[in-house]
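Notebook, bench 3.
Goal today: get a predicted structure for Peptide methionine sulfoxide reductase MsrA from Streptomyces carpaticus so we can plan the truncation constructs. The sequence was checked against the plasmid map this morning, with no discrepancies at the termini. Length recorded as 220 residues. Pasting the sequence as submitted so the record is complete.
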Amino acid sequence: MMLNAFKTRLPGPEDALPGRSEPILADPGRHTVLDTPLAGPYPEHLEVADFALGCFWGAERRFWQTEGVWTTLVGYQGGITPNPTYEEVCSGLTGHTETVRVVFDPSRVSYAELLKVFWESHDPTQGFRQGNDVGTQYRSAIHTHSPEQQQAAEESRAAYQKVLESSGYDTITTELLPAADRPFYVAELYHQQYLDKNPAGYCGLGGTGLSCPIGVAKAG
């Protein structure tokens, strides 16, 4: 799509597309790599984390390759339009991010370790873009599911900011907000595990090369 004003600023309620009352994908099925259900409800011992770090194709792969992750799925979160389509999100008129939902076993991988994957897999200082991908849907965001996740995310952001500043990077622009008021809308089936279905497909994901001093890194 051609660039428009809403590629570089978020829409207000008066600008946002109306969306729809029904999900665009009612039953996403099973994970093509992990062979686990994509949609909940999930087993009680598992926890949920939501991360937006640019194009969700490469981001999802980064998390499904992480030990202790039970399932991953991609969708749209943090905007206004209910049950948006991919084309609507790309228009900039929904306000959503491209988000990866990570369902994980906390006895095998901690939330802090997932935060490490998140920070090191992209450049969180770029605002409404990630590399050559420009638009509000590519902005960096963490949507938390508990006060404990919120605190851990805030602490990790502060720690990584110091690392980035020491290497000449700007201020982190990552949104850090509760997921409770920001519904996660499952994306179309062809987006789910896209890089497993299309191994040579596009992946614009790229980090800064700087280690985040949390989780495994902190222990070292």
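Residues 215-220 have pLDDT under 50 and may be disordered. Helices lie at 56-64, 86-90, 111-120, 147-166, 194-197, 216-219.
Flagging this for group meeting.
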